[in-house]
Design a protein that fits this description.
Length: 168
């Protein structure tokens, strides 16, 4: 990926509905060249999807919970992940280091629905225990960070050339 690809990604993250002509104008290429670049970014998996950002309350999902899941040691992670995929209430699932194996972001309509979800989750084979925190409100979500070019791998600490080894 070069600087133009990064610019295209930033523009699409800000507004995924920009036309190829508008993208081309902003990066200084032709529309067909931009179309080809965006296609490569899509086929390589850099751009994974285009979605509408919808207010959860507006579609009846006013309760957000963060749930830590401890996996039973006799189960493989893939088995638990497979079971978790079956819960449409789970919006995000992160594999964690630490006591909890997974961290889930769950959206439901009511506290009663959350209670029902937690009961079903705790009955899932491979789940030893859960810990739930309910969000009172979202101050922001999905805030994109600027795309950064991948750093080249280094085989050691950064060079200190040009610096004096003696204290000054």
């Amino acid at each position: 990926m070069d600087a133009i690809d990064h610019s295209l990604i930033e523009l699409l993250r800000g507004n995924a509905r920009l036309s190829y002509a508008e993208l081309a104008r902003q990066v200084g290429l032709s529309a067909p060249a931009v179309h080809e670049r965006v296609g490569r970014l899509e086929s390589s998996g850099v751009i994974r999807a285009y979605r509408a950002d919808v207010a959860p309350d507006a579609i009846g999902l006013g309760v957000t919970a963060i749930i830590g899941v401890v996996q039973e040691s006799s189960f493989e992670s893939d088995e638990v992940i497979g079971a978790l995929r079956g819960f449409p209430e789970i919006e995000s699932c992160y594999f964690m280091a630490g006591e909890e194996s997974f961290l889930l972001k769950v959206r439901v309509g009511t506290i009663g629905q959350l209670e029902h979800f937690i009961v079903r989750l705790n009955r899932t084979p491979g789940i030893a225990s859960t810990r739930t925190t309910i969000a009172l409100s979202a101050k922001w979500e999905g805030r994109p960070q600027p795309a950064r070019p991948a750093e080249p791998s280094r085989s050691g600490p950064p060079s200190r050339q040009g610096r004096s080894a003696s204290p000054g």
